[in-house]
Design goal:
Blueprint (H helix, E strand, L loop, with lengths): L1 E6 L7 H14 L4 E6 L1 H4 L6 H17 L8 E4 L5 H10 L4 H5 L2 H9 L6 H15 L5 E3 L5 H17 L9 E3 L32 H9 L17 H14 L3 H7 L6 H27 L2 H29 L4
Parallel strand pairs: 1-2, 2-3, 4-5
Helix pairs in contact: 3-12, 4-7, 4-13, 7-8, 9-12, 10-12
Length: 326
């Protein structure tokens, strides 16, 4: 299968990014044609610092390789380096209903959050996302449940294009939603997703063992001292259970059984911190090793951008021909 997925260049990835997406990508790259993209064009729809963008893109690539993405197996590239993404966005916009865009949950959320920056890019974001996917004849898109609506719109746009131009040129992609999605929450406020904007409640992939231990030990829990998974009544301990389960590949049920005799949360936190530090150690080590090889990473980016460009240029030519533009 051809797999496409993208991640924004935050410049610093945390365990939510890894356990929620990257870990799955690493598994998918064996036996599939995978394209993993740093979606910098999506990132500029909200306020950002232009002078830091290149550094964030570069570090994001390093994080992905350190996490196990092999640029010899998968095409790991930068979205803005392949201009066909923006060209196809415009072409697909002629097959996209404004009402569909205005119904997107992410658009509504972002407009509320960035009231002073309610730009057209936020509205058109899903068209660019559809272009990202459709440009590479994608079969499946690994996403979380919160992105399923965008994939459904990409499917609708592709179907509308094919119907309008009497073709089957655009492949209809399917969402690939994991059966057990590891949704990692903020350690200090487990009602919110983990985010780099709140570093104290966030474990980064390059955190050292003392830092990880300190963050896990200070994580918010409750007073029951009972290892039980219930996100509604026990969000703090449930979040730690999700983390432990994801890094050990032990189910939440088995995790609860394993630690049911513990007398307090402190013991579970220590075990989680120890396991997490051990799990992240090779990623952290690889990250710092690669960070010293700037020229090597630049060559990897250039080569992979070129591979993506070849595929995208061929596809956009076919699309423009069908539309009567060539």
């Amino acid at each position: 299968m051809t797999i496409f997925s993208g991640i924004q260049p935050t410049g610093k990835f945390h365990i939510g990014n890894y356990l929620g997406a990257i870990k799955q990508w690493v598994k998918l790259q064996d036996g599939n044609q995978c394209l993993f993209c740093i979606v910098d064009l999506h990132a500029i729809t909200i306020p950002y610092e232009p002078q830091k963008m290149q550094q964030k893109i570069f570090k994001s690539i390093i994080y992905l390789i350190a996490s196990g993405i092999d640029p010899q197996k998968a095409i790991l590239f930068v979205q803005s380096a392949v201009v066909e993404h923006t060209e196809l966005t415009w072409l697909l916009s002629t097959c996209t209903a404004i009402g569909d865009l205005q119904r997107m949950h992410q658009y509504k959320d972002k407009v509320k959050k960035f009231k002073k920056n309610a730009n057209a890019g936020l509205l058109n974001y899903p068209i660019l996302q559809a272009a990202d996917i459709l440009l590479y004849d994608t079969d499946c898109v690994p996403v979380g449940k919160d992105q399923a609506q965008h994939i459904e719109l990409a499917r609708s746009i592709a179907k509308r294009f094919n119907s309008r131009f009497k073709t089957d040129l655009l492949k209809i992609p399917k969402p690939l939603i994991p059966k057990t999605e590891a949704k990692i929450m903020n350690l200090h406020d487990p009602t919110k997703k983990m985010s780099k904007s709140e570093p104290e409640g966030c474990v980064f992939l390059d955190d050292d063992e003392p830092t990880i231990t300190n963050k896990i030990m200070s994580a918010v829990t409750d007073s029951e001292n009972k290892i039980e998974y219930n996100p509604l009544t026990k969000p703090g301990i449930s979040n730690l259970m999700v983390i432990y389960s994801a890094i050990t590949d032990i189910s939440l049920t088995e995790t609860a059984k394993k630690f049911r005799k513990l007398k307090n949360y402190s013991q579970f936190k220590k075990e989680t911190a120890k396991s997490l530090a051990s799990y992240l150690k090779p990623i952290r080590s690889k990250f710092f090793e690669l960070s010293k090889k700037e020229q090597t990473i630049k060559k990897i980016i250039e080569n992979n951008n070129r591979k993506a460009k070849i595929i995208a240029k061929h596809k956009i030519g076919q699309i423009k021909q069908i539309m009567g533009l060539i």
